Amino acid sequence: xxxxxxxxxxxxxxxxxxxxxxxxxxxxxxxxxxxxxxxxxxxxxxxxxxxxxxxxxxxxxxxxxxxxxxxxxxxxxxxxxxxxxxxxxxxxxxxxxxxxxxxxxxxxxxxxxxxxxxxxxxxxxxxxxxxxxxxx
Length: 136
What we know:
Elements: H1 22-41, H2 49-57, H3 62-89, H4 95-121
């Protein structure tokens, strides 16, 4: 009979139940970071493309698929909010609201993607806030 205080014995050749594999972890990290990378390369217009590609490629991997779906759904809602902030910026009165909104959206988006990538690296899932659930 083993004591509950004994250290966990880990067999390096097997993956514990519920723990994602290495490729699954990399797919999830890539799903979280692909949106900000695509946004930087395309001036924000293609931030949805990175998570969508990871979702399509990793459909059979539940851990990476969930991360990619969450990143896509989050970016969809934030893309619409960015669009709203741009419309407000181009109006004289709305610029007072649009510019701070744009800055807040950028900071929240960066924080959420980094937090998601760090959690994926620790084999934990991350649920994005403010999602319009399209992919699952």
